[in-house]
Specification:
Chain A is of the alpha/beta class. Chain A has seven helices and 20 strands. In chain A, the strands form six sheets. Chain A has a five-stranded parallel sheet with strand order 5-2-1-9-20, with helices on both faces. In chain A, helix 4 links the parallel strand 12 and strand 13. In chain A, about 45% of the residues are buried. The chains are: A alpha/beta, B mainly alpha. Bound molecules: iron/sulfur cluster (3 copies). The site of one iron/sulfur cluster has 14 residues of chain B, from helix 6 and helix 7.
Chain lengths: ~325, ~100
Amino acid sequence: MKENVVIIGGGIAGMQAARELLLLGYNPMIVEQQDHLGGHVSRWHRLFPDLSSAQDLVRRLGEEISEANIFLETKVSYINRLSGGYLVMLTNGVSIPTKAILVASGFRLFDASRKEEYGYGVYDHVITNADLEAWFGGAPDSRIPSSPRSIGFVHCVGSRDLKAGNSQCSKVCCMTAVKQAIELKERFPDARVYCFYMDLRLFGKKYEDFYINAQEQWEVNFIRGRVSEVGETQDGQLQVKAEDTLVGKPLKLRLDLLVLMSGMLCNPDAAAIARMARLDVDSDGFLKSLDNLGGTTRSSRPGIFYAGACTGTKTVPEALAEARSAALDIHRYLQEA
Amino acid sequence: MTDFGFTLSRSATVDLDRVDRSRYERLVALAPDARICMNCGSCGATCTAAPFSGMSLRKVLLGLQRGQDVRPLLDSCMLCGKCTMVCPRGINTRRLILSLSKVYD
Ligand code: SF4
Ligand code: SF4
Ligand code: SF4
């Protein structure tokens, strides 16, 4: 009989790990609380750096794991320690004995309405990166005007923000802002687009080329200053305030659309799993790896492994690579067990 | 003196080897959270006095580290506390400004 491996979370990391575990001869069982697989990526439109389709990635991964057991709209209700393994009980009544559990519970997008000064949910034309991505994917959004003349992006919303309780940099949102700025210019060539940043963190493969392209071809304006507040003018336009820190002067600007780059937090459900399985939480609120260099996929508990954004913000290729690595770790663990 | 047809202006370089940082050091002794300013500019963006005076707490902190006299900026502060509300690093900017007055005793 094939050995079970319970995978908590059916985002791209969980899916990729399931694929590898199938190929290694195991019986991966994905527990996913949504009614579909793919997590955040399933709600994204195009992925950097090649602007490839997020839907294609999720579809491809889905095809590769057609043999896996998948429980949708299901959560873990208990994890009990057995001798040499665990008993995982699900909200659908199923209980699974297993020697290995992979936590791939991912991240939660920061709730932008918590930064009240930006007026998300209050002003008519303030949206988030995720809202914009959904609109790119074809979902209607009445907050996006039909021909905006000026569009702003606010970097670091809920990230690098001690007041929001989140000191860390979410890592992907600078690049996402540059990508989305270009994508908006493709649709609205006459609009002026501004990115308000504190530091541009464009560290990955081809990211800097996007930046150069955004400047050169698309004439995106980069302003070094954090937007401190957003207001609405009498005629319904947005007005943002920032300091242009390179010039050293306060700056105000009217906009027709404002996009907030909401950052990543650890999925709060991971905290519940951590309690059930007695896992450690790191100082940044994400699950704590055995060590943050060579042991990112390992926890301090035997047989419990991690993949993807449950241990920290990850790009798509990082999450996929970590899932492959976790599958190998699990394989070795089960062979030795 | 030979007239070369031009005059030497004061160097525009910040000579960090010579800059007097003593006031900044005194400030961070009184208000240690000044050290974690990340120059985001939120304080200056929202400052009530900024549009008229150019006040920006960010510029005050940076200026002190570069040996500048920041009193002209400070003079315009009304201690309204708006900068405290927007600072993402949670710096107690009001306490900082009050400490600054001691630095210039
Ligand atoms: S990646 Fe950029 S936008 Fe995102 S938190 Fe880091 S600095 Fe801010
Ligand atoms: S307290 Fe002073 S520096 Fe801060 S916002 Fe008010 S006037 Fe500006
Ligand atoms: S808002 Fe805070 S972190 Fe930002 S520049 Fe002002 S003092 Fe520094």
